[in-house]
Amino acid sequence: MTATPTRIAKSPELAAWSEFLKGIGVNAAYSRGNCLHVLGGRPLLLVCTLGADQARLEKALGHTERLANSKEWTGDLIVVGSHPLPEVLSYLDSDPPAGLIGQRVRPGHVLDPLAPEDGPPRLVYRPAGWQWSAALWHRCDTCGRLGVYAETGSWTTRPCGHDSGPWHCNDDEVPAISEAWGRASYAVNKRRSARARQAAS
Questions:
Q1: How far is CA 157 from CA 101, 172, 199, in A?
Q2: Residue 142 and residue 160 in contact, taking contact as beta carbons nearer than 8 Å
Q3: What is the torsion angle, in degrees rounded to the nearest 10, for the CA atoms of residue 57, residue 179, residue 93 and residue 27?
Q4: How far is it, in rounded angstroms, from Cα 198 to Cα 201?
Q5: Cβ distance 112 to 124 under 8 Å?
Q6: For the chain, what is the largest distance between any 2 Cα atoms, rounded to a whole number of angstroms?
Q7: What contacts 55, CB < 8 A, 6 or more positions away?
Q8: Distances (CA, A) of 30 to 17, 62, 90, 190
Q9: DSSP secondary structure, 87-115, as one string
Q10: What DSSP designation does 197 have?
């Protein structure tokens, strides 16, 4: 039985994300493949799914990696859902998740996380690819903008690229995120309605 390919969101979902990012002071540009280049000191390739939980976001990881390879994208990836506060498993439960973030890893030998604790450390080969974890919201202390960091790996804020901020915001930013998303959704729906009325007239 052939698996059904994951549906990657086109407009209006991607349009809502573009409007949302603009509303929080982040620049983004539409790109081939129904994705956004989120611009900054640590840019992201953003793919939007129609899901709102971890399982649905995870189904888009393979597509996102293939898309990044086709673009020869070497930066970080982020897979988001139908709103900016999806249900994603995070061990740092004080920071609200934004989606799943993939960081490029180089090929090489790393310590085997499955090695017995009472035995000697051993190395295993890790091929090139992306390391995925929860993308968590916080506000950068340097530029004051909302951004995300990776739960595992680099805590550098994306997309601004700064390394400062209150890493554990205890949901303090949820109202600002929700409000910005509400404004973005309204603006996109208003434009779509206006276009529909114009086309019908």
A1: 12, 17, 42
A2: yes
A3: 60
A4: 5
A5: yes
A6: 75
A7: none
A8: 11, 20, 29, 20
A9: B---S-TTS-EEEEEEEEE-SEEEE-TTS
A10: H
Quote the tokens at residue 59.
């189904």
CB 43 within 8 A of CB 164: no
- Convert the pLDDT of each residue in 114-151 to its tens digit: 677 787 877 777 677 889 999 999 899 899 999 999 99
Q: What would the two tokens of residue 144 be? A: 């004051």
Residues 179 and 187: their CA atoms lie apart, in Å, by 12
Return d(Cα 53, Cα 64) in angstroms, integer. 17
pLDDT band at 166 (very low <50, low <70, confident <90, very high): low
What Cα–Cα distance (Å) separates residue 60 from each residue in 14, 35, 64, 129? 15, 12, 6, 15
The model's confidence at residue 47, banded by pLDDT at 50, 70 and 90, is very high
Backbone phi and psi for residue 20, each to the nearest 5 degrees, phi listed first: -60, -45
